[in-house]
Amino acid sequence: MRFDEAYSGNIFIGAQQEYENSEVVLYGMPMDWTVSYRPGSRFGPGRIREVSIGLEEYSPYLDRELEEINYFDAGDIPLPFGNAAKSLNLIEDYIDGLLADGKFPLGMGGEHLVSWPVMKAVAKKHPDLAIIHMDAHTDLRTEYEGEPLSHSTPIRKIAELIGPSNVYSFGIRSGMKEEFQWAKENGMHISKFEVLEPLKEILPTLAGRPVYVTIDIDVLDPAHAPGTGTVDCGGITSKELLASIHAIARSEVNVVGGDLVEVAPIYDSSEQTANTASKLIREMLLGWGLVNKK
């Protein structure tokens, strides 16, 4: 799909029809080829778009509405089923094109491995990049059952690329002991269990820096987001996650892109997770897409 093609399927509420005049590009990465538990997140982007029709375009949190931002819904990147390596290359090429055109990339997954080529592309454009990562899991493995391309590896990959001290993980409540040890020994920041308060402490130290934000929906407790591939009890509330998105928006960091991943509609019988994700995307659009215009 060319960047300037209008998407013929369902589009996220309020999206503009023209790529050229857009400032933000919303896109999907429908891949779940490497999941270790339950597949289905490749259907996440489509369902998030579908339920967005039930959203208001106005955010009472930010006192902004979607008509204030020019954003284009490019649809989903066409990815070859089962071919993880080629899919990741296609995603990186796609993001390279968006960044070359001066667009703010906002992605929807898909499994968390899809964030790796996006972060890699953003790091090429912003050498001083920092990563804010919200998740239940560390995602710091080098491989899973012998496979280095796994949804359990993206944060390790970006940490090794830009330096562990430039990666800040929040809400973490699961991972191998070796992953936590590696993070500690290499100067990577991990906040266990909580997000908002430790995030508020970190944000001033990142003032002025380019920051990419990646959110795995399973940072939420399963009571708030049951529709995901690897549920993990003890998570944060949707209210705290919204407040965390807003804290980033109101800070002095330079958000240069973001994503929300791991929504799996097949396990979401009430559509609670998809509806939550849709609202989160709205707040990310309004908070981060307009972050330099507050």
Task: Describe the protein's architecture and organization.
This protein has 294 residues and is α/β, with parallel strands linked by helices. The chain has one domain (24-293): Ureohydrolase domain (Arginase, Chain A), CATH 3.40.800. The chain is 31% helix and 18% strand. It has 8 helices and 10 strands. It has helices spanning 44-51, 84-100, 115-125, 154-162, 177-185, 196-202, 238-249, 272-288; strands at 24-29, 58-59, 64-65, 71-76, 104-109, 130-134, 167-172, 189-192, 210-216, 254-261. An 8-stranded parallel beta sheet has the order 4-1-5-10-9-6-7-8, sandwiched between helices. Strand 9 (210-216), helix 7 (238-249) and strand 10 (254-261) form a beta-alpha-beta unit. The model has no long low-confidence stretch (mean pLDDT 95). Catalyzes the formation of putrescine from agmatine. InterPro entries: Agmatinase-rel (IPR005925), Ureohydrolase (IPR006035), Ureohydrolase_dom_sf (IPR023696), Ureohydrolase_Mn_BS (IPR020855). Keywords: Hydrolase, Manganese, Metal-binding, Polyamine biosynthesis, Putrescine biosynthesis, Spermidine biosynthesis. Belongs to the arginase family. Agmatinase subfamily. Its cofactor is Mn(2+).
